[in-house]
Design goal:
It is a single chain. With 88 residues, the chain is an all-alpha fold. α3 packs antiparallel against α4. The longest helix has 25 residues.
Length: 88
C-alpha cells in the first residue's frame, strides 16, 4: 500500500518535471508527434481540396462515350477519336 513516504518521491519527480517543462520545453518525442500530426492534417486537406475541385469534371473519354451513346457520333468516329485520346 502506498503511504506518504512512497508518494513523496513521485510527487517530487512530477513537480520537477512540471518545472522543467516550462524551462526546457516538452520532452523530445512530443514535437515529432506534432509534426506528424500536422503532416497528416495537411495531406488530408490537400487531398480533400483536390477531390472537391475535380468533382464536377468529366474526362474526355467519358464525354466521347456519352456522345457515342446519344448517337451524336458513329462507331467509326468514336474509335478514331478514342485512339487519338489514347496516344496523348
Amino acid at each position: 500500500m502506498f503511504t506518504a513516504q512512497h508518494l513523496s518521491p513521485l510527487t517530487t519527480a512530477v513537480a520537477e518535471a512540471g518545472r522543467n517543462y516550462h524551462q526546457y520545453g516538452p520532452p523530445w518525442p512530443f514535437p515529432i508527434f506534432g509534426l506528424i500530426f500536422l503532416a497528416v492534417l495537411i495531406t488530408f486537406l490537400v487531398l480533400g481540396w483536390n477531390r472537391l475541385r475535380n468533382q464536377g469534371r468529366t474526362s474526355a473519354r467519358d464525354v466521347l462515350a456519352d456522345r457515342f451513346a446519344r448517337g451524336d457520333i458513329n462507331g467509326e468516329e468514336y474509335h478514331q477519336r478514342l485512339s487519338e485520346l489514347k496516344r496523348k
